[in-house]
Specification:
The chain contains 21 helices and 2 strands. By secondary structure, the protein is mainly α. Strands 1-2 form a two-stranded antiparallel ribbon. β1 and β2 form a beta hairpin.
Length: 461
C-alpha cells in the first residue's frame, strides 16, 4: 500500500514540471483525426503489408500521437467541430472508391459489397461537404449498409485461405464439444500455423454463439464492429458524434479485416465499452468489459499499466480485473500447459513473415540491421513510461496513451499487419469520441468537466 502511494505521488509530481510552451495552439481533435487518417490509410493502402509510402504514413500518425501525449495541447470547449473531420472523410471516401472492400472472393456478392461501401462513403462526403445537419438515424443507416456489405463479403468467400479463420472456426467448434483449443489442429497452408492457437480463450467464448447460429465466427466480428460504432456515436454529442459513428464503420479497408477473421474488432469493442461504462459510473461493467479484452489477446496486457493510472478505473480495479481474467483462463492452461504456452507465447516469437511487416523492423532489416525481441520490449517499456508520466489520466488520456503504446509496439515488431494497425487507429477514434469529457483550465491542463464543476461548489458547514 505504501509503495503504491509513493508511485502515485511520483507520477503526480511529473505533471508539475514546466515543459516548453509552444506558441501554436493545437486543436487536439483535428490532430487526432490527421493521425487516424494517416494510420488507417496506410493499413488499407497495402492491405497491411510493408511499403515505403505505408511506413511513412504510420510514422506520421505515430508522431502525431506522441506529440499530443507529450505536449498536452490546449482544448477549447467547442473544439472538434464539423470541419475538423475533413482529412478523415477524405480518407474513407478515397479508400471506398479506389480500393475493394475485401481482398478475397469475386462475383456479384463481392462487387455488390464494394458498391454499398462506396455509396455509404459518398453519402457521408455529401453530408460533410454541404454541412447538412442530419439526425442520428443517418448513422444507423450507414451501419446497416456496412453490415450488409460485410455479410456479402463473407458469403463471397466462405472459406478464406488464412490460418486465423481456420483456427477460430476449429476452436469455436471444439468449444461446443468440450475440446481444448490448445490441443487441436486445423487446416493451414504451408507456412501457416495449424496447431498453435495464438489468442486467449475469451475471444472464442465471445464468438461461440455466432458460430452456433451462423456457422461462421466472422458474423460475431461484424456484430462487434457495428456495436463499437454505436458506443462511439453515443459518447459524442451533436454532428461530431454522427461523423464518428460513420467513420467507425467506414474505416478504410475495415471489411477486409472482417473477411480475414482478425479478432481486433472484438478488442476495440471491449475497450470502448469499458471506457463508456467508466464515464457513466458503471465500474462493475467496465471491469467486466476490460477483463474480457485481457482474456482475448496478449497484446491487451500492454494496457494494464495505463489502466492502473486511469483515474476512473484505478490500480485496485486493474488488479482485480487482471486476476479475474487469469482465473477465467486457468482451466484452459491447466488442461494443456504446453499447448497454451506454445500457442500464446512461443508462436508469435517464432512466426516470421520475412520483410512484410508494416514496421520499422522491416525498414531496418532491408538495410541489414535486425532488431531482436529485446528491442521491441525496450521500445514498448519506454513508451509506457512516457505515457504514464506525461499522459492524461482521464478516459480520453487512457485511450490516447493506449494508441501510442500500441503504435510503438507495432513499429518495432516483426509481425505488424493490418489488424494491429486497425486496433491502433480504432483507439485513436475512441479517444476522439470521449474527448468531450475534458476541457482546459487557464494553465492549459486537462480537467474533467465533473471535477471542474465540483471545484466551484461552496463547502457546507
Amino acid at each position: 500500500m505504501r509503495t503504491m502511494k509513493r508511485l502515485e505521488h511520483a507520477i503526480g509530481w511529473s505533471h508539475r514540471f514546466n515543459w516548453p510552451k509552444f506558441p501554436v495552439r493545437i486543436d487536439s481533435d483535428l490532430a487526432l483525426l490527421v493521425g487516424w487518417s494517416a494510420i488507417s490509410g496506410a493499413a488499407a493502402l497495402t492491405n497491411g503489408y510493408y511499403s515505403s509510402s505505408a511506413i511513412s504514413l504510420v510514422l506520421l500518425g505515430t508522431f502525431v500521437l506522441f506529440a499530443l501525449a507529450m505536449m498536452r495541447p490546449r482544448k477549447q470547449p467547442m473544439a472538434g467541430q464539423h470541419m475538423d473531420f475533413g482529412f478523415a472523410v477524405a480518407a474513407v471516401t478515397f479508400t471506398a472508391l479506389a480500393l475493394p472492400s475485401g481482398l478475397y472472393g469475386s462475383g456479384f456478392d463481392f462487387y455488390c459489397a464494394h458498391t454499398l461501401t462506396a455509396l455509404a462513403a459518398i453519402s457521408l462526403a455529401v453530408v460533410f461537404v454541404f454541412s447538412i445537419r442530419v439526425p442520428r438515424v443517418f448513422v444507423y443507416v450507414v451501419i446497416a449498409v456496412q453490415l450488409i456489405a460485410g455479410c456479402l463479403l463473407v458469403i463471397a468467400n466462405p472459406d478464406p485461405l488464412i490460418d486465423v479463420w481456420n483456427a477460430l472456426q476449429a476452436a469455436a467448434n471444439g468449444l461446443g464439444h468440450d475440446r481444448n483449443m490448445y490441443n487441436m489442429q486445423w487446416f493451414a497452408l504451408p507456412g501457416q500455423d495449424s496447431n498453435a492457437f495464438p489468442y486467449f480463450p475469451g475471444c472464442v467464448v465471445f464468438l461461440w454463439p455466432f458460430y452456433l447460429i451462423f456457422r461462421d465466427v466472422r458474423y460475431g466480428e461484424l456484430f462487434a464492429f457495428a456495436s463499437t460504432a454505436l458506443i462511439l456515436m453515443r459518447s459524442r454529442r451533436g454532428q461530431s458524434g454522427v461523423l464518428i459513428g460513420c467513420l467507425a464503420v467506414l474505416y478504410p479497408g475495415a471489411l477486409f479485416g472482417i473477411q480475414s477473421a482478425w479478432i481486433d474488432p472484438i478488442l476495440l469493442l471491449e475497450v470502448s465499452a469499458a471506457a463508456w461504462a467508466c464515464t457513466r459510473g458503471r465500474k462493475g461493467l467496465a471491469m467486466l468489459a476490460f477483463g474480457a479484452a485481457l482474456a482475448s489477446k496478449p497484446q491487451v496486457w500492454l494496457l494494464l499499466p495505463l489502466a492502473a493510472v486511469w483515474k476512473d478505473f484505478g490500480w485496485r480495479r486493474t488488479a482485480i480485473t487482471f486476476g479475474g481474467s487469469v482465473v477465467f483462463m486457468l482451466p484452459w492452461y491447466l488442461a494443456s500447459p504446453s499447448g497454451f504456452v506454445n500457442g500464446v507465447l512461443l508462436s508469435p516469437i517464432r512466426h516470421s513473415n520475412g520483410l512484410a511487416s508494416l514496421s520499422l523492423y522491416t525498414t531496418l532489416a532491408l538495410h541489414d540491421w535486425h532488431i531482436a525481441v529485446g528491442g521491441t520490449v525496450l521500445a514498448t517499456v519506454v513508451a509506457l513510461g512516457l505515457a504514464m508520466w506525461r499522459g492524461q489520466r482521464d478516459t480520453r488520456g487512457f485511450l490516447l496513451s493506449s494508441a501510442l503504446v500500441m503504435a510503438i509496439f507495432n513499429l518495432t515488431n516483426s509481425d505488424s499487419f493490418f489488424n494491429e494497425w486497425w486496433l491502433t487507429a480504432g483507439l485513436v477514434l475512441a479517444a476522439i469520441a470521449f474527448s468531450e469529457s475534458t476541457v482546459s483550465d487557464p494553465s492549459g491542463a486537462f480537467v474533467s468537466k465533473v471535477d471542474q464543476s465540483q471545484t466551484h461548489v461552496p463547502a457546507v458547514s
